[in-house]
Write a structure and sequence with these properties.
A hairpin with a 2-residue loop joins strand 8 and strand 9. The chain is of the alpha+beta class. It contains four helices and 13 strands. The radius of gyration is 16 Å and the shape is globular. The two termini are 18 Å apart.
């Protein structure tokens, strides 16, 4: 466990909601969108309507309101999108955050105290759409959290340095036309060194780069206690 992971693991002792506070932990369920899930073999998971249909099925079977998962998940979701082609045409297909799939308009909450590092609308098809990055400092350690696939209204009134307290509403989940062709969900990612990125950071990597990103982007569930 890295120093950051060790720090994050001690921040909370119980579930920290990242979506609408009225949604209890028992209404969350795991979902598998990996290439190894045989249930996806006949589903065009890159189509937001088909993806939503599968998500709704998982939610229904588990009497849930939120489906979550995806850290280090190898996905076929990106195979047909040129946005995810890396060097030498290697596809970026390893997901570095955790996705929370829920209805468009669901509120997104800050899981930690922080300030706005940057924000922008990453509007390329397959990207994040409206995105917010928060900066955090705990016990002298700086790190960042990224929230992607938000609504456009989520960016209204933001400015660099704007403070958010744990539990404050950051924004809401966007619709497929705004979150650039995905079923509604939150992409939540932790970042140790954000480099020169502004309002953005890679959320999917190639197998060649996985070890670097795994070290730089620890599992977000450390702080959510999911």
């Amino acid at each position: 466990m890295s120093k950051l992971e060790d720090l994050l693991a001690g921040i909370a002792t119980e579930f920290v909601p990242i979506l609408d506070k009225k949604i209890p932990w028992k209404a969350y369920t795991l979902i598998d969108l990996s290439r190894d899930n045989s249930a996806l073999a006949s589903i065009d998971i890159g189509n937001p309507e088909a993806c939503q249909g599968y998500i709704d099925r998982v939610l229904g079977l588990n009497d849930a309101l939120v489906a979550y998962g995806g850290y280090l998940e190898h996905r076929n979701l990106y195979a047909q999108n040129t946005h995810f082609k890396g060097e030498n045409a290697i596809i970026r297909n390893i997901h570095m955050g955790v996705d929370f799939w829920a209805k468009a308009g669901t509120t997104v909450l800050a899981p930690l105290n922080g300030t706005v590092h940057s924000f922008q609308n990453n509007a390329t098809i397959g990207d994040y759409g409206p995105t917010i990055v928060l900066q955090h400092e705990i016990q002298g350690m700086l790190f960042y959290s990224l929230y992607g696939h938000l609504s456009l209204l989520s960016l209204d009134g933001l400015y660099v340095g704007k403070p958010f307290q744990k539990g404050d509403v950051l924004g809401t989940l966007g619709t497929p036309d705004i979150n650039v062709n995905y079923a509604p969900h939150l992409h939540f990612q932790l970042i140790q060194d954000i480099g020169a990125y502004v309002g953005d950071y890679p959320g999917v990597c190639t197998t060649n780069d996985m070890e670097y990103y795994k070290e730089n982007c620890p599992n977000p569930l450390f702080i959510l206690k999911v």
